[in-house]
Amino acid sequence: MTFAGAFCVFLAALTVQGVGTAPPNVVLLSVDTLRADYLGCYGHEFNSSPNIDAFAKQGLLFEDCVCEVPLTNPSFGAMLSSLYPRMTGTTKNGIRMPKSVPLMPEIFKAAGYQTWCVQSNWTLKGRLSGLSRGFDVYRDDFNRKRWGFVKGERDGENVTDTALEILRQRDSTKPFFFWVHYSDPHAPYEFHKQFNPRGKRPLPIIRRDRVRAKYDSEVAYADFHIGRFLEALPRDNTIVLFVADHGESLYEHDYLGHGRRIYQTMLHIPLIIRAAGIEPGRARTPVCVLDIAPTLLAMAGLLPAEGMLGRNMLSKGSALPSTRFVETYGGAVPKLPGIRTILRDAGPQRHGVIHDGWKLIRGSGPELYYLPEDPNETKDLAEEHPERVKELTDLIDKWHAQCPRSQAAAAHLNEDDVQALKSLGYLE
């Protein structure tokens, strides 16, 4: 951590110590690969998320939240640092967060919080991601295989059981910051017979429909165990922020998966905050993953680290900017050192901007969509609105200049890492 970052953490600790009331507990509750539109509270037609939906009724739901990069490690790196992945160099899975970048958990720890994390995705193992800094407990001790050969996650039941074990052992005289991450909706999708929101058996024959039914089942399975965790949390003086790292394309735009394109199916994520003093409801304010750390720190009476770019989503003093920049670099850094260096340092495969409802995607060619009227991005308006394409292109070019790309070190991948990343679809 830089001197400036350390000094900011010190100031943050003083801020909490000066607050008259007891500091709140803070929970970052996240789900991997969860599309917003597959939750009932975001309009899904099937009952896949009763517990999350009930939680949403108790909190403030943000209708328009996007991630900056639709990959797990880059997205959570942005969430904890409030910096674009391009600025920290963590643009792919398999690249470690530089130690010089202050992270939100470090600020909570410096302020006297107990800091815990229960992980479930292989790419977030501390030695690979560098995101374990600031945690007293970082439980990434899983080695689960699905169907005997797919390695790479801790299932929802185990996540909740581990989280409840930590809660039982906590020091009730001190506040805690707790990051709990579920990975069940991540491919390969598993069908859980007890969790079948679509109610149809056997599974559909058409591959697209079968994949979507399995994904629904995974969401419902995760929702059940998330409900168990929420039930066990102390309700008094506890802030809970629910979010996903990115979404998933389920054959929209003839694509299955995430990480290599930047359509809304992969970028639009749920974000819900429940806390005392927050009136339940829905917010149309455009927000993004960068805003999460400054918001949670502000709610706990703490200052953000120097250089954090996000805004407090709940601040009434100033409007949040409606311009959001997105990009993707694709997959993970491969095993071979020479190729790893080349791909680590390569530019984005696609990048884009969302501004006042308009979205421009640059990569194979400019694509322009007006999301309020075309949320599924089915009608490319680039040829009809060249002036809008130029306006948004200028915004992207200005952003590139203001947020230059940095480099970070690729983590060492052992054979287990290679197998896990292959099974998760990040290595070919």
In short:
The protein has 13 helices and 17 strands.
CATH superfamily of the largest domain: Alkaline Phosphatase, subunit A
How far is the N terminus from the C terminus? 35 Å
Q: At CATH's second level, what is the architecture of the largest domain?
A: 3-Layer(aba) Sandwich
Largest sheet, in brief, is:
9 strands, mixed
Q: Mean pLDDT, as a whole number?
A: 88
Integer count of domains: 2
What is the CATH domain class of the largest domain? Alpha Beta
Structural class: alpha/beta
Low-pLDDT segments? 1-19, 146-150, 338-344
Rg over CA atoms: 20 Å
β-strand amount: 15-25%
The best one-word shape is globular
Would you give the CATH topology of the largest domain?
Alkaline Phosphatase, subunit A
- Helix-strand topology string: HEHEHHHEHEEEHEHEEEHEEEHEHEEEHH
- DSSP summary, beta strand count: 17
Number of helices: 13
The percent range for helix content is: 25-40%
Annotation keywords:
428 residues, alpha/beta, Alkaline Phosphatase, subunit A, Arylsulfatase, C-terminal domain, 2 domains, four-stranded antiparallel β-sheet, 18% strand, globular
Walk me through this protein's architecture.
There is one protein chain. With 428 residues, the chain is an alpha/beta fold. It has 2 domains: 317 residues, Alkaline Phosphatase, subunit A (3-Layer(aba) Sandwich); 98 residues, Arylsulfatase, C-terminal domain. The chain is built from 13 helices and 17 strands. The strands form 4 sheets. Strands 1, 2, 3, 4, 7, 8, 11, 12 and 13 form a 9-stranded mixed β-sheet that branches. β5 and β6 form a beta hairpin. The protein is globular. The chain starts with a helix and ends in a 5-residue tail after the last helix. The N terminus is likely disordered.
